[in-house]
Amino acid sequence: MWKKKIKAFSLLETLVTLMVLSGAILVITGLTKLFSQEISRAQTNTEQDWQLFVAQMREELATGRIAEVKADAFILDKQGQKLRFGKGFSGNDFRKSNQNHRGYEPLLQHVRSVDVQKSQQQLSIRIHFEKGGSKTFLYHAPE
Fold first, then answer.
1. What is the pLDDT of residues 34-51, one digit of tens each?
2. Where are the domains of the chain?
């Protein structure tokens, strides 16, 4: 009367299940941490953005002539078309637009301030970033 068979998991089956479950949780935790680090690195990596900015500026400056330099921007004359390169008025970016500030092509994001200077044949663009630090772009501008 006391010897009834109850269907249940054995101790060994329970231990194996717990090991598989803990292994899966460890893998998921590790992948989540790796994924969040990768997203963080991609969002804060300004070096690639800077290299792209330098390449774009060199290309633009090679095909135009500097018409005017202001404190935070400069005007480039490209075959009669006047293009403005400088800090955007309403945002935190360095952008390319026409002389009347129409059009929108951001070249760099998260820009706090911009200092543009031209001395003799050298154009200097110093960009200060919101997250700290600054970088300087120098270009030899033939007259």
1. 988 887 776 666 788 889
2. 10-44, 46-140
- Residues 117-141: pLDDT tens digits? 998 889 999 999 888 888 999 998 7
Residue 113 burial by Cβ neighbours in a 10 Å radius (0-12, 13-18, 19+):
middle
Model pTM score: 0.65
Q: Which helix (H) or strand (E) holds 30?
A: helix 11-44
* DSSP for residue 8: -
Cβ atoms of 32 and 40 closer than 8 Å: no
Question: Which tokens is 79 given?
Answer: 């075959």
Strand partners, 94: 87, 108
Q: Is 20 helix (H, G, I), strand (E, B) or coil?
A: helix
